[in-house]
Structure formats: structure tokens, C-alpha cells
């Protein structure tokens, strides 16, 4: 296939490289001066999209996605498919889907989980929204860039699944960290805490697969001085998107709102920027009840 790839950062760069390695012709564009193995660089997003069967975007946010869509949609041939893999607000995903539909293009919102390791290893999970035909057009590329793609429903459903998942993740990570900090103060050994909780009803991915306590459980960013991993500011971004969606859908999400408030304090006032999102554990450890 001829593929246009726009946004070749930490995630998009290795994803585009994997498509090229699999034998596709990939033309890329990024605002920054980047070069990616096997990818021919274009001078603009529109140029990268011209003649492409599929255009993939991997951009920082919904506002940038909307601006890039304004450039690439008019350059794309009728019947081609636009696949946005960025994590953006549900409203932007649906607006771009409508715009693509009006130009007789297919659209899939397909945010990912799996992080930078998953992008370079080709093991991402895609959560996709769009028509069955649009999903079918993108699926062979998901198979190259990832190990699993779930068709979640119509346009916007991929973003909805992503932010609901990450809202749970933010909440459970905070719960796991505050429970460890309480256990410390009660004199409970961290390894014993892990041994019990990881096999009891308090278990979760945060505890079992990504334990925030150094030296306990599987290797995780906690064992590397909380270098990300999944940075606290990216968690904050996703929690904000969840609250934005909750407002627009009139959903009551008090735990998600509290998780957003805590990550916002952590990132913006307490030095959490640049640390892994599991660094909530040393944050709680350093605090008392009345801080
Ligand atoms: P990044 O900042 O490394 O990459 C974004 C790229 O987009 C940059 O290279 C930037 O120059 C480029 N860009 C910005 N505006 C542009 C424009 N108008 N035209 C062309 N290029 C433009 O970010 P990333 O870590 O690759 O994340 C990309 C998306 O993936 C985000 O939406 C993020 O939330 C999501 N995501 C990231 C991770 C992760 O672990 N990094 C995990 C899952 C999802």
C-alpha cells in the first residue's frame, strides 16, 4: 500500500518504520526535522497524503489533529482511508470522521495502548471506531504495528474505550499507591503486601503488572527511579480527556475527577512532570494525613 504517515514522534516514528519494514511504501511528514528508516519525507502533510491508500496520523492532541485533517482531507483520493492513532477527545474524532465522510473518505479513530516499547516492537493494541469497511481497510496495518485490534463501534468508539480504560488505570494506580503508603505506616512489609494483594481481591494491572513499589513484583519503572514508562503528564492528559467526555455526555465520574485533580497537582505543583505515573507512591509516602 501507499501510506502517508503524519506525526513521526516517539510513537509515530517506530510505527511508520515497522510499516516500511513490512514492505509498504511510506511517505512521512512531521513539523520537526526527523528521519525514519525506510520512510521518504515529504515537504507537507498534504504532500504525504497525496496518492496514499491510507493516511495515518499520530499527533499530540485534538486541536492539532483537526488542523492536520484540514490539510490532508482535500489532498486524499476518494475512497482512501484516514486512520488517526493519536489519543484525542471524542468530539474531535467524530468531527474529523464527519469531515472525512463528506469528502467520500473512510475514517477510523484507533488510539493505542502499549507505549513506546509496543510501538517499536509492533505489539500495540488498537481500539478502533468507524464503519466495518473502514476497519477492514486499516486492519492489515494494525496487524503489522500491533498484536491486537478491537473494533469498538462507530467513529469515536475507539477514543471512548481508550479514555475509559485509562480513567480506570489512573484511579487504580492512585488506589494502589495510597494503599502501599498506608501499609508502610502500619509497618506492613511491602513484599508481603504485594504477595497478599496480587492474589486477592485488590489485585489489578497497577499492582500485578506495574507494581509502583521498587524491588517488589515484576520489573517496572519503580525499579528505574520512576523514569517513564508512562509519564504522569500523559496520564493527566488522558484523565482530562475523560472528564471532558464525561461533561459532554453528562456522566457522573467522581473518582475520575479526583484522579485528574491529584495528577494535576502532582504534575503542575509537586515536581511530578517527567516522572512515571506510578511515582504517586513516593508522593503519598512523603505526606501525612493533614498535608
Ligand atoms: P510526540 O510528541 O513524541 O510526537 C508527536 C509528533 O507530532 C512530534 O514529532 C511533532 O513534531 C509532531 N507534530 C506536531 N504537530 C504537527 C503538525 N501540525 N504536523 C505534523 N507533525 C506534527 O508524542 P508521542 O509520544 O508520539 O504521542 C503521540 C500520540 O500518541 C499522543 O496523542 C499520545 O497521547 C498518544 N500515546 C502516547 C503514548 C506514549 O507512551 N508516548 C502511549 C499511547 C498513546
UniProtKB/TrEMBL annotation:
Domain 6-phosphogluconate dehydrogenase NADP-binding: 2-153
Pathway where this protein functions: Amino-acid degradation; L-valine degradation
InterPro entries attached to this UniProt entry: 3-OH-isobutyrate_DH-rel_CS (IPR002204), 6-PGluconate_DH-like_C_sf (IPR008927), 6PGD_dom2 (IPR013328), 6PGDH_NADP-bd (IPR006115), HIBADH (IPR011548), HIBADH-like_NADP-bd (IPR029154), HIBADH-related (IPR015815), NAD(P)-bd_dom_sf (IPR036291)
Entry's Gene Ontology molecular function annotations: 3-hydroxyisobutyrate dehydrogenase activity
E.C. code: 1.1.1.31
SUPFAM superfamilies linked to this entry: 6-phosphogluconate dehydrogenase C-terminal domain-like, NAD(P)-binding Rossmann-fold domains
UniProt family annotation: Belongs to the HIBADH-related family.
Protein name: 3-hydroxyisobutyrate dehydrogenase
Taxonomic source organism: Phaeobacter inhibens
